[in-house]
Amino acid sequence: MNEADLFKNITVLALEQATTLPYLTWRLVHQGASVIRLEHPVYGDPNRRIGDDVLSEDRMFSYFLAINSGKKALTLDLSTSEGQEILRKLLTTLNVDIFATNQLPRNYSKLGIDYETLKEIKKNIIWLGLTGFGPTSNEAAYDPVLQARGGLMELTGERDGAPQVVGIPLADMGASEHAFGELMKALYKRAVTREGSRIDVSMFQSTVSWSTVPITLTRSFGKEISRRGNTHEFFAPVSVYATKDGYVYLAIGNDKQWNTFSSMPGFNHLAKEEYQRNAGRIADVERLNREINQVMKTKTTAEWIDIFVKATIPIAKVNTIEEVTEDLYVRDILIRSKDPVTGTPLTLSPPPVTTEYLKSVNFELSFPPRFGAQNEEIYGETLGYTPDQLRDLKERQII
For a designed S-S bond to 339, which of 107, 172, 303, 344 qualifies (C-beta 3.0 to 4.6 A apart)? Predict the structure, then answer.
């Protein structure tokens, strides 16, 4: 089988909202899976109304557009017996492989989406529950709350300043990536044993798992780890430095690189005995950074990048997001989409890994689906509901 077609027959049904699960299912779209998102017919995904009204259309705001291309959308009220009957038909008729939800656990049985119920309908279903604190907790959680409780904010910001959130929703997207790996394991298990799986992913556990070194040093050796601004806890010099026309991030990762750095014109005066080892540089990092800053201000960003790249010393301009999208290694793998209604083009972030499927479609995905966009197609053409039945279900807000 062509690698681009590996996920062609994988169908994902996701009762999803907000960021964590929609980002996960978008990652599955990158593999070529068929993803159908389920939303309540009245409330829908709140993120549809977050951001700017770029299309002058309700429930299609800019924040929603970023991670929902390539999907289909259905509306369904699972709190009703009729809605749960339709869900059963969806699972069997569409031969759903993966059912995923980021509902609170207390809603699983009430909505008829708990693993045991769905397993009775489809024996080899792969079931995924993404929750804030695991399947035994009904505590609500948003990304910044998890960053705060999980220690990420304690590690982010200036040394003497207030804690800061990371600039992207790492708790959300990190949990998505961890769940993605668990799904790949479950698909492999099913291929080998023909058995389904239940997967529970705690966003909190996922968040805390990133703090590898801080937790080891804190719990094992009593070291207090906290935020240090742009410097590094364990390496020096590693920081942001002002140039003649902007900022760069310079990172000296070992003593060999330091020897190269301190022998370069302008930095020779730093070739001191006490700086030969990383520990000595860390011990005097504030003075060291002040001296480096004085030299860095004498040349432009482009000049320093040219000098340090030739010396094989890691350096980067602190780019704006616009500049990032023009980077040599980014610009050709940005995902694109186009609204068939308004003609609005959409540029989306690149995938973490370039998949054969995305290459096969030239990095172009269908536009993020409008609210209930595939109701008639799937409920009518696939499940066989008549126009009159669909009209009745809609009037009673079942779909």
Answer: 344
Asked whether residue 221 is domain-assigned, the answer is no
45 plus 154 within the same structural domain: yes
Residues 17, 153, single domain; the answer is yes
Domain boundaries, position 313: 238-318
Residue 144 belongs to a domain: yes
Structure tokens at 306: 């040219």
**Beta bridge partner(s), residue 128:** 100, 199
CB 14 within 8 A of CB 371: no
* Amino acid making up residue 88: R
Active-site positions?
172
| One domain for residues 72 and 97 | yes
Cα atoms in the 13 Å half-sphere on the side-chain side of 364: 5
Domain boundary among 275, 295, 318: 318
Cα–Cα distance measured from residue 380 to residue 399, given in angstroms and rounded to the nearest whole number: 12
The secondary structure of 32-83 as a DSSP string is: T-EEEEEE-TTT--GGGGSS--TTS-TT--HHHHTT-TT-EEEE--TTSHHH
| Domain assignment of residue 44, yes or no | yes
3-state SS record for 303-334:
HHHHHHHHCCCCEEECCCHHHHHCCCCCCCCC
CB atoms within 10 A of CB 41: 19
